[in-house]
Fold each of these.
Amino acid sequence: MKRSGILNRHLSGALAELGHGDGVLVCDAGMPIPDGPRVVDLAFRAGVPSFAEVLDGLLAELVVEGATAASEVRQANAAAAGLLAERFPSLDLVPHERLKELSAGARLVVRTGEARPYANVLLRCGVFF
């Protein structure tokens, strides 16, 4: 049994399969999930687990070289916008419709229980060396 880190066996296994350049969409409960990527649905109740909790857990285990979010987050969800700006100083912002298009190319989707709008980010995996 793992001692720490992500304990969810489906998510832990999916993370171990990622490689350089792979996309990981971390999304709120309302984001449309495209056909194709592997999905780990962590949503339990509205707000549980939160976008921030899941994102920080993933960032503790992944090497991330870039991130993309919807530009609408700035006006619609100040908390998520602040979190993303803090975690990703070079965050790429695109219209929400474009983020949904880009999400189709993700290798993994992690759905949270977040119930506030535009709490979504597409991570691009880096390499540890």
Amino acid sequence: MHQQMIFVNLPVNDLDASKKFFTELGYTINPQFSDEKAASVVISDTIVAMLLTKPFYSTFTKKEIADATTTSEVLICLSAESREKVDELVDRAIAVGGTASGETQDHGFMYGRSFDDPDGHTWEVVWMDPAAIQG
């Protein structure tokens, strides 16, 4: 059975700084799909963030590229296996150059926090109680 993947393409100001940020979060760069214009950040078996220099990103769209530090163009949400893993990833992101974004959301069965990466893209990290999901 085919497992569908998602490739999130994000424009970045400084490719090397962005690569450093995401590798310090524990993700890997796939060199097969990376060069001086792009970096393929492997988040999981089914999620890849493609970090593209702004000139390269602009070859894929005729639209103006949003300044993610002042305009919200997307909210990226990743699941976590526990509340502790939510805190671990967000705290690590802040420690290596990200900034806290929004308030902690604690609804008992669901817990989430968010951070902005160095280019201003907002990443939410959420844990949901599996029992709440089932029914």
Amino acid sequence: MTDQPPVAVTAVAGRDLSSTDGLTELLTAYHLFTEAEKGLAVGGADGLPDRYRSEILSPRSAFADDTVVVARDGRAAVGCVVVTAPVEGVAEIKRLWVDPSVRGRGVASALVEAALAHAAESGALRVRLSVWSWRSGAIALYARAGFGVVESWDARDGLVCMEHA
């Protein structure tokens, strides 16, 4: 087994995203995979709900007030997570995705760690997230990062709400 170098993780203000950052491809994969997990047949990005298509078509607009942490393996974007600006001391992590070809290399952990660091630097006292209950690997990752399950703030069935203080 060959050791592979770690990926580089950088935070970018959403308003500064460019069309060449690779985020469109990552978000497309994320949303298509999520819809498939829910059992919804979506043939491609055009079949996604409008709210998800808007993120794919213009991440810069969708995340203008947020920060996007991107992991790169060389020049290729291989992972991302969005961190919202704190509101009343609470930031939110969403859209964590790592390309399946680089999973097992600590990319998701690095993204979560960078997201938490950015949230703290931005003045967040707490960071929250929601994750589908069937994503046991993600729930375990978040627990290792210090998140705990809290009462749900989202009425959708199957979501687990977690918070890091």
Amino acid sequence: MDNRQAIGSWLSGPRAAAEDMGVDFGYRGQRLGLPQDGPGSVAPLGRRFGAIFVDWALCVIVVYGLITRGSANVVENWALAVFFVLSALTVGTLGFTPGKRLFRLRVVSEAGGRLGFGWALIRCVLLCLAIPALIWDRDGRGLHDRLGRAVQVRM
């Protein structure tokens, strides 16, 4: 292996380097028994980011208009609290937030059924910490989803 190949594998990441050596990881969600594409498959990252952006914007608008009455000093703290309540209640009961519904996503348990309210609550606490949401496994699930025994799928 020359220096260009070593630098290329370093820039591409460990998964690309392992795939170049012949390791087959399969598709995202295969280990969970999910289809490769279509309804029920693992949600793509772009849709998940779009959904959380819509949910956050909705929370900021609600907080700015109803709770802080235009005071921008404490909007972020209140918005996080409203985001937690919105996520816990809607994911725990319906399986999706308004943003996820807009982007046609749903949160289900690893077994494929509805996510229980307790697991949804754990997932939302970890999501509000933000760091677990930035750590992903090879199925594209954040640490908050893994510990909450959840997976986000397409509708």
